[in-house]
Write a structure and sequence with these properties.
Distance between the termini: 124 Å
Shape: globular
Order of helices and strands: HHHHHHHHHH
Number of helices: 10
Structural class: mainly alpha
Radius of gyration: 29 Å
């Protein structure tokens, strides 16, 4: 008589548990993939919502502030120098009276058109949050790179100034021994407020935060940097140095956020302030 074959006992609860785990695993993978795709699509939609400017409009909006600042500067040169101030003071006045109100006013007006109230919300790009320590790291790295590039291009600046723009007067910063200590203290106090803080902040908002993301083409970064260099009509011999030298700031803005480029810009301008204060401190 044959022995009966033992029946294999199936653990139904364990089987159900395994199937459920596999289902949840596949479900979570699918949901994660959908989340990533939606997030990517959302970013793309936000970027697509930014109205791209025509090349002509982009060039106009880039150059207009520089042209107006240049006109004010050259018109204010004689009155300012007659008052006993260096020509650089006329440039600071141009920044305070023309550049800052014009660019900031334009941005606020765009905010008014979009939201119904004067605001920068929804107008400025590149505001991604980054850890605080990255600000110090990236600002320091970019500042050094910009400094090296600007130094390397100094021979080209000198060549262009002597051979192409010899007819244009250089901006006199007042550190030539011909100005009183009081005049220089006033000049560099205005320098600190306008050229170290206000002007760089507004310029970064206007040029990098608003104009750059609305430019078309693969070479938008380089073209933008060239146009930004071109607005410095008071020192056109530095156009090549500024075009190349400020590319790291643009990179830092687009890859990190606008505040990285803003702080670097302020640091770059602050070097002139430190030079002036050092000179003044040695005066009798």
């Amino acid at each position: 008589m044959a022995c009966p074959t033992p029946t294999r006992i199936i653990d139904v609860p364990l089987l159900i548990e395994g199937a459920l785990c596999l289902f949840l695993k596949d479900f979570l993978k699918t949901e994660l993939l959908i989340f990533k795709l939606n997030r990517k699509e959302s970013k793309k939609m936000i970027q697509d919502q930014i109205e791209k400017h025509s090349t002509l409009r982009s060039v106009f909006l880039h150059l207009l502030p520089g042209i107006l600042v240049g006109c004010f500067y050259f018109l204010a040169l004689k009155p300012v120098t007659k008052m006993g101030y260096p020509s650089f003071f006329a440039l600071l006045l141009a920044f305070a009276i023309i550049l800052v109100p014009l660019e900031l006013g334009f941005l606020l007006f765009q905010g008014k058109k979009k939201t119904g109230r004067f605001t920068l919300r929804g107008i400025i790009s590149y505001q991604k949050s980054i850890p605080w320590w990255q600000y110090f790291v990236w600002v320091s790295i970019i500042f050094v790179i910009v400094g090296v590039l600007m130094t390397l291009f100094k021979p080209i600046d000198s060549f262009l100034q002597k051979n192409l723009f010899f007819w244009m007067p250089d901006v006199n910063t007042g550190l030539d021994g011909n100005y009183s200590k009081t005049i220089l203290i006033v000049t560099y106090s205005v320098f600190l407020i306008i050229n170290v803080f206000l002007a760089p902040m507004v310029e970064e908002l206007y040029f990098r935060g608003y104009l750059l993301p609305r430019m078309k083409g693969k070479c938008a970064f380089l073209f933008h940097s060239f146009l930004f260099a071109a607005i410095h009509v008071f020192s056109p011999w530095m156009i090549i140095a500024r075009t190349i030298g400020f590319l790291p700031i643009i990179f830092g803005t687009t890859k990190k956020n606008i505040y990285v480029g803003m702080v670097v810009h302020m640091w770059c301008n602050a070097t002139g302030f430190v030079t002036g204060i050092t000179y003044i401190s040695k005066m009798v």
